[in-house]
Amino acid sequence: MTDPLDSEVISLLTRLARVSSSAWQADALDALSNQTTLVKMAILDAASDEEAKQLIDEYISRKKSAAPPTTALTPGAGVQQLNKLLAPLQTLPASTAELRAFFEDTNDLKVPVSPIFVEAYKSMDSNVVQLLEAAGYSVTTLALQELVSISDESAGSSEQGTCSIRINPFLTKAFGIFQKHGPVSARLSYKLLLNQTESGTIMRSTARLSRPDFLIQVKGIVAGGGEDRKFGNMEAAKADLKDKFLGLPAIVRGSADYLVAYTAAGAQVQWHKVSFYHGDQVTLEELTPELDMSTAADRALLVIAVAKVFVLLNAVERVLPPVCGSFPHGTRMKRGGPGDVTITFSMTNAVKVVKNCAALTEYHSNSVTTIKAAYGVATAKAALQAAKGHAPYMVPGTVEKQTTNKRKQSDAPSCESLVITTTVLGYTAVVQSEEEAKGVIWAALKTIQAFEEQRLVWRDVRMANIVRHIDNRGWMTVDYETVAKPGKQKDKYELTDWQPGTLREDVYDTSSDLYQVGRLLQTLQDSKSVLAQDLVLGLLGRRLGTQAALDHAWLQGVEDQWQL
After folding, report:
1. Rounded CA gap, 19 and 88, in Å?
2. Which has fewest Cβ within 10 Å: 19, 46, 420, 426?
């Protein structure tokens, strides 16, 4: 004690200790050591020694209750609290009600903070532990104080504007802590992307060549995000978020019908469900109330909400298409193979360049004319589907030959390359249900039928060449460079997936394509029903033609999947 009144206080404590104990005197000195002059004056001005002792006993009690509980400081207590926060979801919430219930369930969830954090706040209130516990924190040995120290600028507003709460670095810290200290089962393949200068951003994955201030990627696809505003207008932040997510294609966001995103304005933060409809409608539905970062309790609720987001993304990761995340926007992918192929992807198309088209056609025993005809068939069928209000089951495209010099000299020998431009309307996805398996098989059969009508054979029926429509409206076939006239011999060109029994009399025809569809259906794990097996037997036994296969009972009603 250094206050001028300290000597008087010590004298009082010494007098009172005569009727208490020396231990009581030590506790009293400890409790009053950091108290203000006003507190000490109040004790000295007490009407009687008994009243002074009651006041001192109250401060002793506060001092003792403010000490971190022994049980909470045992090794691993913070990890246990974190494991509760990051308990895995068994299934991804399908409806808004289920998702909202998941976010609202905060029973027994606490945010672990370290004793160091408690010491830092003791100067504000000696009863800090009780206040933290009431607000949703748990004092443990696990140092997670970063979770509640978003910014020193998190409060205050005026008509001119407010200070940013800087939610982006907070999320980065929180996700890093969850990844480092959380259970192994909660590990996540994520990337957090901050759009520091929206006008100059390179990633043009949203409408109007802009994107939200913050994007959360899981396995390379957008699974969440956020929009920050320095000025305290939450409605404006919501409007910006909807506008920037408008038209976000499935090739960027995967097969989920929704993602989660926050809006932040001034000192307020709120989490939302962002839903997509047909690629041209976006809705926001609240998952949390507006949380005020100037209050300890709401900061705890934000940490819990962010933990919920982390858990949700972990569940999303388990159902993501395996190739969608590696989609190389704006980059060139070296594919090699016959003719030396490269593919450049963008958000609207894929340009496949075959540097030596003679090598390609020789290997496939076909011609450029046939390849052009194949893509012409696909384009015509896509137009017919569009006229019906349906998504395509074949990817449309154009084929052009280009002559280029191998060397800069004008007299150098030239070679012809093939440029195939297709509209990128789909992405590789995993078949997860029998209904999806029906869509895959229907698209393959319709493609075979379209080629059959023009006396062509596909010769490359396999899952790698069947993709999910970009707005999740059915499935679509791709890659028609293998198409040829029927009757080509096996020794000239062999199917990638060829096996004994595929060909009849060693030639490729429609029956060999149908046989491959039967093999494909055999491999789909979600197509084990009796009707599906009956279709498999019919295709492998060559008892069904293309139309008969499409008329099979297992495929009835499946065309509705393509309706836009």
Report:
1. 58
2. 19
Helix (H) or strand (E) holding 465: none
First to last CA, the chain: 78
Tokens of 126: 């000696």
Give dist(CA 263, CA 412) in Å, integer. Answer: 60
In total, the chain counts a number of residues equal to 564
Radius of gyration of the chain (CA): 34
Please choose, from the candidates 249, 250, 219, 225, the residue with its C-alpha nearest in 3D space to the C-alpha of residue 315.
219
Asked whether the beta carbons of 276 and 256 are under 8 A apart, the reply is: no
Residues above pLDDT 90, as percent of the chain: 25
**Single-letter code of the amino acid located at 126:** S
CA distance 307 to 260: 13
| Chain centroid, CA 72 distance in Å | 34
Q: Which of 143, 152, 148 is nearest to 132 (CA)?
A: 148
Secondary structure letter of residue 327 according to DSSP: -
Which pair of tokens denotes residue 40?
């000490």
**Res 248: pLDDT:** 62
Whether residue 382 has pLDDT greater than 80:
yes
| Contacts with 471 (C-beta within 8 Å, 6 or more apart), sequence order | 249, 250, 278, 279, 391, 564
pLDDT tens-digit map of 463-516 = 989 988 876 678 999 999 999 998 766 655 566 667 777 777 778 889 999 999
Distance CA 487, CA 334 (A): 32
Which residue from 427, 395, 223 is spatially nearest to 323, judged by alpha carbons?
Answer: 427
- Confidence (pLDDT) at 325: 45
Write out pLDDT tens, residues 223-241. Answer: 888 888 766 688 988 988 8
What amino acid is encoded at 3 in this protein? D
Taking alpha carbons only, the member of 394, 491, 411 closest to residue 446 is 394
Match 């957008």 to its residue by tokens: 222
